[in-house]
Amino acid sequence: MLGEIDHIEIEASDAAEMADFMKALGYEEKRRTTHHGESYELVPSDGDGPLFEIHTVDGEEVPGINHVAYSVDNIEEVTEELQENENVDQVTDPYYVEHTGRTITNFRDPDGRRFQMVQDDE
Length: 122
Hints:
Layout: E1 5-12, H1 15-24, E2 27-33, E3 39-44, E4 51-56, E5 64-71, H2 75-84, E6 95-97, E7 102-108, E8 114-120
Parallel strand pairs: 1-4, 5-8
Antiparallel strand pairs: 1-5, 2-3, 3-4, 6-7, 7-8
C-alpha cells in the first residue's frame, strides 16, 4: 500500500528561519506557496530524500512534525483500503489541495498522530 515518503510537514515557530536552517544543511527551495500562510517546500540538493514542507504554526498548532505523507498512485483505491481497515482511525475522503497540486487522504494512528497518503496530480 505504501509508496515512498512524499513529504514531511514541519510546523515551525518561524517558517523562514527554519527554511534557512534547512538550506544550511544542504536543502534547496523547490517552491513557496500560500498554503498555511507562507509555506516552504525544500528538497535535498543531492536529490536523495523526502521533501520537507515547512510553515509557521498557527492557532492551536505547536512546533514539531505535523505529519508524514506517503506517495501513492491510486488515492481512491488506497483510501478505500484504509477505510476498511479497523486498525486505522479517522480516514478522510480524498480531497484536492490546489496550493500543492496534490490529492490527499488524512488518517490517524492509534495515538492520534496524523499521516497522509498523497497522489501528485501535477
